[in-house]
Amino acid sequence: MAATRLPTTTPLLAGFCFLAFANPVLAAEELPALGAKIEETSVSGISSGAYMAGQFQLAHSRIVVGAAIIAGGPYGCAESAFAGLVPGANAWRAINGCMAGLLWGVPDPRALARQAQRLARNERIDALDDAREDRVYLFSGAEDRTVIPSVVRAAVEFYGALGVPKDNIRFVTTYRAGHAFVTEEDGGACELSAKPFVVDCDYDQAGDLLKHIYGALKPRANAASGVFMAFDQRPFTRDLANAGMSGEGVAYVPSACRAGGCRVHVAFHGCGQNRDEVGDAFVEKTGFAPWADTNRLIVLFPQVGKGFGNPQGCWDWWGYTGSDFLTRDAPQITAVHRMIERLAEPPSGR
Q1: Domains in the chain: boundaries
Q2: Among residues 66, 97, 191, 312, which one has the fewest Cβ atoms lying within 10 Å of its Cβ?
Q3: In angstroms, how far apart are the furthest CA atoms of the chain?
């Protein structure tokens, strides 16, 4: 059975989220309460989503057991000492140092680890003892010219400086991938760095990162059989100024997870990779769903939109939503955490 797909529609219509594939979908529904195991949450992301995955991991390390950083650098890389004095200082540092690795912005992993320690001491992020127990997957494609390999290596060194054991860190550099999420058989040519930023390198990246984070998994399903459910993100952002989130997100819900007891994996898209730009390519073609079906895993695909200061629809890793962007108080981190809390609520009738 093919996975049911619930596409985006106008907000004036109403519908029911678990419709059959052949039926028209009228609108996104509320994100359901599914009794998920919030304390076994994991995160992954590519590009700006990689930075957001690292930010969310440290902000909420009490519930996060592992993170995957694909084509991204270390936590806090873009925060400039001149951020409050020079307009655009963070953006300059992000582009020049945290992507291109140019001289005056090259990340210093040890200094960034000390910055994270200060934020933890000030209770702006969770205690780092929890993060030190996490399992971390990192990936850099040999043909990636957008976020160069040395920047991703700085993220590896950051986790080491933070105290994450070497055995908990997996750094994959053996594929000639461009700036993209890598799959076994879907997407463009391996070396491409172009929309939808999904490439075929004969490598199951989704499976590899999930196995590194969670350990041994059951074999993936031959085809996804759960539900790709479009849901309304607005209830999670109504009191958050300048969150920059899209109206709808997507959750993949295996049939076995409707009764509760599943884990949650959050997959953050990259710049220019949200549903408005590439449709459901990142949601459906990255290969998470077949692993989710057989391993009791809900996959959350939150979506961020374009806006002033964010013309490419990137997650906030340089401060366009405000100075709290690295902390638990960041609007986007708050919104996604609320989504996970919603998934963790007991299912109706229990």
Answers
A1: 4-9+27-344
A2: 312
A3: 58
pLDDT in tens, 168-180: 999 999 999 999 9
Residues of the chain with pLDDT under 50: 1-26
Amino acid at 315: W
d(CA 6, CA 14): 13
Whole-structure pTM value: 0.91
Determine the 3-state secondary structure of 5 from DSSP: strand
Amino acid at 105: G
What residue ranges in the chain does DSSP mark as E strands? 4-5, 41-46, 64-70, 135-139, 169-172, 181-183, 188-189, 198-200, 227-232, 248-253, 263-268, 297-301
Structure tokens at 154: 């700085």
Pairing between strand 227-232 and 248-253?
Answer: antiparallel
Q: Where are the alpha helices (DSSP H) in 286-346?
A: 288-294, 331-344
Q: Nearest CA to 159 among 139, 135, 181, 142?
A: 135
Q: Which amino acid is at 119?
A: L
Tell me the C-alpha to C-alpha distance, in Å, between residue 69 and each of 57, 122, 181, 214, 226: 11, 25, 11, 15, 26
Q: pLDDT of 247-303, one tens digit each?
A: 999 999 999 999 999 999 999 999 999 999 999 999 999 999 999 999 999 999 999
Tell me the catalytic residues. 47, 144, 179
Q: What are phi and psi of 189, to 5 degrees?
A: -60, 145
What are φ and ψ of residue 331, in 5° steps?
-55, -45
